[in-house]
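User: I want to check something. If I give you two sequences, will you return the structure for each one separately, not as a complex?

Assistant: Yes, each is folded on its own. Here is the first sequence with its structure:
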Amino acid sequence: MAASDATAEAPHPRRAPDTVKILIAGGFGVGKTTMVGSVSEIVPLRTEEPLTLAGLDVDDLDGIEEKRATTVALDFGRITVSDDLVLYLFGTPGQQRFWFMWNDLALGALGAVVVVDVRRPRSSFAAIDFFERRGIPFVVAVNGFHGEHPYPVDDIREALTLPEGVPVLLCDARERESCRDVLIALIDRLIAAAATAS
């Protein structure tokens, strides 16, 4: 066999997939850690610490009295969307005293999911404002605690004063398929934004 024939038959090295950094953000106790954990294909990295008596005057547990731990730095997970695309998921801490970390976590992020608990929508206003000010595309994932979604999407959009272009999706942060659908909606938004910009 000629050398040129051997070269022609050699398999091409497989190209590494594109990686996209996505933030999972929202208020304290809305389900960010749960979402990263349920959709990640790897055991997620978590930086959770137990809530203690020292935080009673700082942490607002109204409506989430059963919460026992909180993220103090970040959550990290990964999901392979296709052979060509892998998402790196970074969950932000929700408590106000840790918000200074959001700027560092946002570096290089192409998009975000803002998780909302409709029992406490005000807890996610800061995340919405954060991404709007930085021009980072995001979708809103309304986490149905106890599997319930008591309000229609239009009412939620109005309560959060969201523009029409921001997708609002009902989800269950405990369910992998539900979280996957939220991420797909975000990827669709990123692709549409890139097409408009080009």
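And separately, the second sequence with its own structure:
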Amino acid sequence: MSTREIDIVLFGATGFVGRLTARHLAAHAPRTITVALAGRSRDKLTAVRRELGDTAQDWPLLEVDSTRHDTLDEMARRATVVVTTVGPYAEHGLPLVAACAAAGTHYVDLTGEVFFVRDSIDRYDAAAHDSGARIIHSCGADALPSDLAVLLTALAAREAGDGDLSVTQGYWRHVRGGASGGTLASLEHDIRIRRSDPAQARLGDDPYALSPDRAAEPAYDPSHSHSGVGRSRDLPGWEAPYLLSPYNGQVVRRSNALTDWSYGRGLRYQEGLYLEKSLLAPVKAAAFAVGQEALTAGFGTPTGRSILSRVLPQPGEGPSPRRMASGRFLLEVHADTERGAHWITRVGALRDPGYGGTAVMLGESALALVLNQDALPERAGVLTPATGIGAVLADRLRAQGFHVDTRRS
């Protein structure tokens, strides 16, 4: 791919997260690499490029439509990496995955859609493996922090001689930020699939739904799909279910299986939303759980969807810069090892996880594929952030002000 004329194409550059990602690339991509903006409207692309300042004024603009496969194929042939924010991915994403897998072009997205990723694996993993393409899903808030944190924990424990990971718990702490319109649209699509197809619903609930070898994994255990309301195992407080956690866990388990279960055959990973110890913590935990159940139930009916569409952000919409500036998140992973050690890894930033934080994670994932090729795992196919990019992401995110650390407690 060294002969490709464009290093990175950002597809969906005129959407809300797309524009944020474009700004990040304009500020941090070296002048030595070529970045292009892609979307359906050249006029809108021109307006976005104008906002980016002098460094981006010579960036190529590509008119690409997700419904026109010829334009997707041409974009993939010209690029080393295609970054896409065009979702819901189950509706718009598979043709681009197909184009990149066939062309040997690396691909990065921010999906949290388990059915889309499962389809991507089943249809295009072999083609991507043969062409050398890295199809890397979920390089945003779903599910890069989780995937990276467990990878760093397993690497540190192994280097210290502490053996494989066993019970491993992620705690989302200090989360402040709004859910993106794209994430909510993906959630709505996920719920519709589950309600219309019981077999798909069972797949979506399976903690090992994304495993490359489901028969080699444990039998389905609902206790591993999400956390309930209760006292924290590792911290002096309470935890509640977190909407993104079931999918994050599926990605982490795929990473483990793709690396021949290098984290440990006994890995048991799940996540929850952590609430600091207080008299009101159990009430808040229950309220979070009820609120998430109500949101899920609302998306499951036409009346509920109509009401929610009037109060929640739509795809392409997002909060004000002032509100995003107050965003933050921290994921803290606690892991026991088979030899009795305990490790803690933290990944977080003073950024809104679904918007500014995701834009940085997405942009740095793409830049790593171009600039850190010698440090990447030797792997191709439909991958995860941990297996397709690896620990080099930790250094890249630290350079952008993210907090990433691992320690033995």
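Because they were folded independently, the notes below concern the second chain alone. The mean pLDDT is 92. The first helix runs from residue 16 to 28.
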